[in-house]
Amino acid sequence: MSAVRPIPGAEHDGETSWQRELREQFPIVTAHPELAYLDSAATSQKPRAVLEAVQAYLTTSNANAGRGTYPWANRTTDLVEGTRERVKEFLRDPEPDRSAVHFTGGTTEGLRTVARDWLVPYLTDGDEILVPYADHRANLDPWLEARRLLAERGVDVRVRALPVQAVSGDYDHRRLGEVVGPRTRFVAATHVHHVYGGDMNVHRIRAAVGPDVPICLDAAQSVGHLPLGLDDPALDVDFVVFSGHKAMALPGTGAVWARNARGPAFRPAGWQGTPNTVGIVSLRAALDWLDAAGPDRIARWTAGLTTRLTDRLRHLDPYEVLGCPAGLAADSALPAAQRRHGIVTFRHRGIPSDDLGFVLYSHGFMVRADSLCQAGADEKDGAVRVSLHVYNTVEEIDRLLAVLASLT
């Protein structure tokens, strides 16, 4: 068995002290030192700053936004509108005067809003769209629903699958040319895969479809987990949809960012009603916290823990680690951008994944153990997913590895 290398930066007192200080800011984590929360791809834990911001809002200025002229209502309205600009700033929006931000209940609702309110009016008879059939169901079902709605109006739209590499789970960029055509009008893609943890290389999709086709990016596993800068040409996308609850904010919170540079401007249809003001408060506080912590440092920390886990797990014979095998070793030749981003999914060849999940919890580890909402998967495709954030430690990974090794 090869030696497990320390995670990048973990040998430096400054880096471990930085992480320890951040971990102490999560009350639920510090209150349960016997437990290791390893399910941050499902939802993140909340730092004290977010909880305090929510408490302060509810006890000082709770009111409806855009419905009154008294001070509490005005402050709430300003907070909601200001958070739209904060989202743009966090995403490093290169043209904030042109773009738009719409708050939703999360990624699923956001993708469905883009599908129903923007894509359906945009498409015409004979158009084609490319969608991911092997990613999260939330990034497939809305586009199939859009096709059905159009069919009911007599508009025939072809839905084509983004080609996928069977072993790695990454999009097969060499075959993209086979599915892109003159009637390709829209692409739905994922930034970081929720099962395999890999960057899906959206820049290669842009290169294949050309400069004029809108791309919608499911960023549920990237916003709040790693730097995401829309001023980077490699992220030339038209929609970014994410869940606040995976980025340190409260559940029921998310956003759609629209570039508004290709196709019509994004405007959700119908009367919007009362926004989730408490969730929006939490989102603003979460983005502030993440910026102060440093998304690049958070990404390095979680990538290091991921490498530590996969580097040893690949040597435990009963386990199959899903995703690109080239990225399992600590000395992998893959560039850092292509390594797993805080997500490790695996199976035990002799223990069903749901049973393994129960076993791990009996040892104090909270993991996801099922089919992971992957499109096309069912119970037989169950797996155990470990997903990490900045509050996780080297000690937790080593303790998990020890338990997994005892089950061989």
From TrEMBL:
InterPro entries referenced in this protein's UniProt entry, alphabetically: Aminotrans_V_dom, Aminotrans_V_PyrdxlP_BS, PyrdxlP-dep_Trfase, PyrdxlP-dep_Trfase_major, PyrdxlP-dep_Trfase_small
Cofactor needs: pyridoxal 5'-phosphate
Superkingdom of the organism of origin: Bacteria
Keywords: Lyase, Pyridoxal phosphate, Transferase
Molecular function in Gene Ontology: cysteine desulfurase activity; selenocysteine lyase activity
Keyword Hydrolase part of the UniProt annotation: no
Reactions listed under catalytic activity: (sulfur carrier)-H + L-cysteine = (sulfur carrier)-SH + L-alanine
Enzyme Commission number, as recorded: 2.8.1.7, 4.4.1.16
Domain Aminotransferase class V as annotated: residue spans: 37-400
Family note: Belongs to the class-V pyridoxal-phosphate-dependent aminotransferase family. Csd subfamily.
Protein name, as recorded: Cysteine desulfurase/selenocysteine lyase
